[in-house]
């Protein structure tokens, strides 16, 4: 297998379109199709279910290859960096995160870590939830921010806190002028959400909060990341209920309105390999706890619901 063939395969798997993937890779659609056909012949399995007027879907063999190909390409990049860089000049730290953490937390904690540990070379990755445990235990990442409520097997788990949910509405929406809303105020709105397959805990937290408020959200569209979600809201097409960290990402045309329901929350957790001690990872965890406590204090001073912390949470000092 050629690494270029694997990159082509992952592009189609991600875009679910030969046309879009070919444009992104800068190759002809026919050449891309031939590349993937050659890869299927080489492996002796079908990687995509294809059909007229239907987006290509990964077969079971294709899903296995997608997970392994991502890891292989990341490892290939790491090998290249290890050969070309001075191996004594940096300490690698590979961090994965969910979309809201990229939107609202990474820009706050990673610069602090780099200032405090200048030799640390941080790599950030976005992973599908089903790949996180494997990537951690296989040693492909060192730290993962997720929404687990308990520890997967072989993983050290820390519940960092419970994030309050926030309404995200178009800035032209009548609710945008409110200082807070009840979830029931959104009952007649069209929602955008992340699909449950990619974010089951957040999905269940949001839909559960809506059900407690007396309605089931009408989901107009599913988004793949916060940029797509917020852009769709800014376009005036939908509203959303998002974790607090997403609301730290200022996005033109979107207004965040606190939700009054005290139980409308979703967990934020930190995952690491069991028993592994990495100074940079320890320091990142310390910085994260301190930043979350600082954010909670700021929200409380504004009279808003803030991140709540488990009784066993370590001091942020």
What features would you describe in this structure?
With 317 residues, this protein is an alpha/beta fold. The protein is built from 10 helices and 11 strands. It folds into 3 domains: 67 residues, Arc Repressor Mutant, subunit A (Orthogonal Bundle); 109 residues, Periplasmic binding protein-like II (D-Maltodextrin-Binding Protein, domain 2, 3-Layer(aba) Sandwich); 103 residues, D-Maltodextrin-Binding Protein, domain 2 (3-Layer(aba) Sandwich). Strands 3, 4, 5, 6, 9, 10 and 11 form a 7-stranded mixed beta sheet that branches. Helix 8 links the parallel strand 7 and strand 8.
Biggest sheet record: 7 strands, mixed
Let me know the number of strands: 11
- The Rg value, from CA coordinates, equals 21 Å
Q: How many domains, as an integer?
A: 3
Mean pLDDT figure: 89
What CATH calls the topology of the largest domain is D-Maltodextrin-Binding Protein, domain 2
What keyword list fits this structure?
317 residues; seven-stranded mixed sheet; alpha/beta; 3 domains; Arc Repressor Mutant, subunit A; two-stranded antiparallel sheet; D-Maltodextrin-Binding Protein, domain 2; 42% helix; 10 helices
What's the topology here?
Blueprint: H1 3-15, H2 18-25, H3 29-43, E1 48-51, E2 54-58, H4 60-84, E3 91-96, H5 99-104, H6 106-116, E4 120-125, H7 129-137, E5 143-146, E6 155-170, E7 190-194, H8 200-212, E8 218-223, H9 226-234, E9 240-243, E10 254-258, E11 265-273, H10 279-301
Parallel strand pairs: 3-4, 3-5, 7-8
Antiparallel strand pairs: 1-2, 5-11, 6-9, 6-10, 6-11
């Amino acid at each position: 297998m050629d690494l270029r063939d694997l990159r082509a395969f992952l592009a189609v798997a991600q875009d679910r379109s030969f046309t879009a993937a070919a444009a992104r890779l800068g190759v002809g659609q026919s050449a891309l199709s031939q590349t993937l056909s050659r890869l299927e012949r080489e492996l002796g399995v079908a990687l995509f279910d294809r059909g007229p007027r239907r987006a290509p879907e990964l077969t079971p063999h294709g899903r296995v290859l997608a997970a392994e190909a991502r890891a292989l390409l990341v490892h290939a990049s790491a090998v290249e960096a290890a050969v070309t860089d001075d191996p004594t000049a940096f300490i690698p730290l590979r961090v994965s995160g969910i979309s809201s953490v990229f939107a609202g937390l990474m820009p706050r904690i990673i610069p602090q870590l780099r200032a405090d540990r200048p030799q640390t070379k941080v790599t950030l990755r976005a992973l599908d939830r089903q790949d996180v445990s494997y990537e951690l235990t296989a040693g492909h990442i060192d730290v993962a921010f997720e929404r687990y409520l308990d520890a997967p097997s072989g993983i050290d788990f820390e519940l960092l806190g419970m994030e309050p949910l926030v309404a995200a509405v178009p800035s032209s929406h009548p609710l945008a002028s409110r200082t807070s809303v009840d979830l029931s105020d959104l009952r007649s709105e069209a929602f955008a959400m992340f699909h449950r397959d990619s974010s089951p805990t957040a999905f269940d937290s949001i839909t559960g909060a809506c059900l407690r408020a007396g309605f089931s959200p009408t989901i107009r569209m599913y988004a793949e990341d916060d940029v797509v979600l917020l852009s769709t809201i800014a376009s005036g097409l939908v509203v959303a209920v998002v974790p607090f960290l997403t609301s730290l990402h200022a996005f033109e045309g979107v207004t965040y309105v606190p939700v009054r329901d005290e139980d409308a929350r979703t967990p934020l957790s930190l995952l690491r390999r069991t028993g592994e001690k990495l100074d940079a990872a320890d320091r990142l965890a310390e910085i994260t706890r301190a930043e979350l406590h600082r954010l909670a204090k700021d929200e409380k001073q504004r009279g808003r619901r803030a991140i709540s912390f488990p009784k066993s949470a370590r001091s942020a000092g």
